[in-house]
Amino acid sequence: MPRTSSTRAPGGAVTLQQVATVAGVSLATASRVLHGSGGRKVAEALAERVTAAAAELRYVAHAPAQSLARSRSTVVGVLVHDIADPYFAAIAAGAMDVAREYDLMVLVANTFRDPGLERDYLARLRAQRARAVLLAGSAFVGEPFAEEVAAFAESGGRVAAIGAHGTGIDTVEPDQYGGGRLIAEHLVGLGHREIGVITGPAGLATVAQRLAGFTSVVAAPRLGHADFTREGGRAATHELLGRHPELTAIFALNDLMAAGALAALRELGRPVPEQLSVAGFDDLPVATDVTPALTTVRLQLADIGARAMRLLLDDEPVGRLVPAPAELVVRDSTGQASTLH
Amino acid sequence: MPRTSSTRAPGGAVTLQQVATVAGVSLATASRVLHGSGGRKVAEALAERVTAAAAELRYVAHAPAQSLARSRSTVVGVLVHDIADPYFAAIAAGAMDVAREYDLMVLVANTFRDPGLERDYLARLRAQRARAVLLAGSAFVGEPFAEEVAAFAESGGRVAAIGAHGTGIDTVEPDQYGGGRLIAEHLVGLGHREIGVITGPAGLATVAQRLAGFTSVVAAPRLGHADFTREGGRAATHELLGRHPELTAIFALNDLMAAGALAALRELGRPVPEQLSVAGFDDLPVATDVTPALTTVRLQLADIGARAMRLLLDDEPVGRLVPAPAELVVRDSTGQASTLH
DNA sequence: GTGGGGGTGGAAAGCGCTTTCCGCCTGCGA
DNA sequence: TCGCAGGCGGAAAGCGCTTTCCACCCCCAC
User: Fold this and answer.
1) Exposed/middle/buried for residue B206 (C-beta within 10 Å: 0-12, 13-18, 19+)
2) Tell me, what's the pLDDT at B204?
3) A199: β partners
4) Inter-chain residue contact A288 with B263, CB threshold 8 Å
5) Testing the interface with A: which of B56, B68, B133 to mutate, by most A Cβ within 10 A?
6) Which run of H or of E encompasses B80?
7) Residue B132's pLDDT is what?
């Protein structure tokens, strides 16, 4: 249809004005037909002309202009430490699902656990006038980050967090403490007394809580330190067993590190769970991919992400705290304490 | 400082006008100081007053307004089938890294392999006037999707794809065909003659290419069909071995399904690789988490994502094709063909 | 001492859309 | 027949920013 090529601006996008002109109506009428909030009626005939013109020109509204005019945007932000980490990927997927229900686009920001970047991205999300932002990574405690969060809220955006992010914002709180406790009780029930724990990045609330839950049952586990990665878990296991050969069980604070621990024990020729038991946390897909399958704590990550997003998008007052349960999943990587020592 | 509380609009965000007023300069000057493209100079003294005021008020520019005025936005889009799939998560992470270099925000759209949603998201990315969009999922062939891609490009955005997405757009092309071939040659070299292949979603270019590479060496493998998931791979393995007990090797078209195959074989009590060899594709982290570790084809996914994003953001003419190598990684899941049959 | 030019601040015109008014037209009742 | 209310289209005023253009000032050269 030659109409199309002659009407559309060569290099640029189609504007509402062009649609209105083609339809032979005013800008205002075109706007009412295409994006009208329903409050105002437009005659059938005109409306049809407008929608036809819009379709013919492949018109889509200029979202930034709409944001400006309506002073509300259609994007939400999700702040994660690393989207390639399946833990965050699962949360993000759940959140994105809900965002789609609400017809919102999702800006994902990868912070690499860098507090500076985190602040920076939050400021940029504020610049975008994102309607809401989900802080999916547990915070480092005591940052000036709180100030940036406040600025975001003050400029009209909503904030929710997974895990403890301070007061005044909606929070979905996975039962990290309870999960740590469950693993401890499970291991103790199997007769383990000498247990090593491989921790994650210092300062992460998640780490502190999981560990606290564990130590509420097992007072003084041997600690090894890693960074929540498979490779870190492997190295820490070697190191920990070097220092404490008497251990009969290892609790890695996430599944990734537990997988690494399993690899290390294979290298050392120490059978799991016959000689050493291993437990993880999160119940990521990797937990069932490894052999033996990991005993771990299930967090319903996609659901957690989804619920956090719902908190952001409903119109209830803020400051709610939604607990998310942790569930013990016993698989093959844990067994009776070996009597070899 | 009481100044802050009295100057900032109670409910809304700080505007440039407010900053200008506080600094005692005009709107134009404030704009030049804070976002000036360098072409125009502003006296030291004034500039300092402006930056001070901006900092004091925690001013960040209204991005939609800026997009409108400059008619260029600072967001790019990434279209993936499922961000929770580590394959796409890795690509997205690589792409986001590069986007950060360019100071761009990334809108991630999860399409769940639904062609309708894919089109829809692309239109919405066009609405956002995203500067560029990365099509990370290999296309379903022959969709009206192409039309939407054209509309996006026409409205001034750039488009790049991972895998074959048609002509006229930049493409990073992983050597899927070559990878399939490498696995075939490897298995044949080990003496395997009866080989099963577990394929992925029909219509996916990736699937066709990997399979084509394989069959260029092994003419007529037994085919089982699955959906690129671990569970699908498991079920398909049971089914395939039921039909063809004579198989000595199984090639799953991705690592997730290969992990499922391993699980199935464990259930069947058939040792890998002594009795059956298994190979995957992608070299995802899971490949080294399983036991035995998977022989697979390495695709440098993060790098692929990063290179695609660079294609989008440089100013070269479009239509380039960048090949990405596939590399055979031999691990423990493949061995000499068993002589039991 | 006056004219001209370079440099710098400010006014104002958009960018594409929403939304408030305003005014016209129609239809109804008196 | 006229008045008035209700319905609906259009003009226009923004939303917050960029950028062009104009005006002004100061300094220098003649």
Assistant:
1) buried
2) 86
3) A225
4) yes
5) B68
6) strand B75-80
7) 95
Please tell me the distance from the alpha carbon of residue A200 to that of residue A211, in angstroms, as a whole number: 10
3-class secondary structure for B49-77? HHHHHHHHHCCCCCHHHHHHHHCCCCEEE
For chain B, list the domains and their CATH numbers.
2-61 (1.10.260), 73-174+302-325 (3.40.50.2300), 176-298 (3.40.50.2300)
User: Is there a contact between A211 and A201 (Cβ–Cβ < 8 Å)?
Assistant: no
pLDDT given at position A141? 54
Q: Are B106 and B95 in contact (CB under 8 A)?
A: yes
Residue B140 backbone dihedrals phi, psi, to 5 degrees: -80, 140
Nearest beta carbon to residue A107 from set B107, B123, B259: B107
Task: Determine contact, residues A279/A187, Cβ cutoff 8 Å.
Answer: yes
Interval A116-159: pLDDT, tens: 899 999 999 999 999 999 999 866 555 667 888 889 998 889 99
pLDDT at B112: 87
Token pair, residue A175, equals 């039962």
Q: For tokens 């771990």, what's the residue?
A: A296
Question: Residues 224-243 of B near strand D (Cβ < 7 Å)?
Answer: none
Write out the two tokens for A180: 């740590």
What is the token pair recorded at A243?
């220092």
**Distances A208 to A144, A161, A212, B165, B328 between C-alpha atoms, Å:** 20, 17, 6, 47, 41
**What is the signed CA dihedral for B207, B209, B213, B214, rounded to 10 degrees?**
10
Q: How far is A273 from chain B (nearest CA, A)?
A: 15
pLDDT per residue over B158-176, tens digit each?
A: 999 998 767 778 999 999 9
Q: Report CA-CA distances (Å) from B176 to A228, B182, B311.
A: 32, 10, 20
Exposed, middle or buried, B316 (CB in 10 Å: 0-12/13-18/19+)? Answer: exposed
pLDDT value at position B35? 84
- Is strand C in 7 Å reach of the CB of A3? no
A5 touches strand C (CB under 7 A): no
Question: If you search the block for the tokens 């298995």, which residue do you land on?
Answer: B187
Q: What stretches of A201-336 adopt beta strand conformation (E)?
A: 222-225, 249-252, 277-279, 296-298, 321-324, 327-329
Structure-block tokens of residue A103:
């017809």
B199 φ/ψ angles, rounded to the nearest 5 degrees: -90, 175
C-alpha–C-alpha distance, residues B298 and B328, integer Å: 6
Cα gap A113→A81, rounded to integer Å: 5
The pLDDT, as a whole number, for residue A237 is: 98
Average pLDDT, chain B: 91
For B108-136, what is each residue's pLDDT tens digit?
A: 999 988 888 999 999 999 999 999 999 99
Those residues with Cβ within 8 angstroms of residue A186's Cβ, 6 or more apart along the chain or in another chain: A279, A295, A328, A330, A334
Q: Does position A5 have pLDDT exceeding 60, yes or no?
A: no
A40-54, A166-180, A260-274, B166-180: which is most confident: A260-274
B63 touches strand C (CB under 7 A): no
Using one digit for the tens of pLDDT, what is the confidence trace for B244-253?
Answer: 999 999 999 9
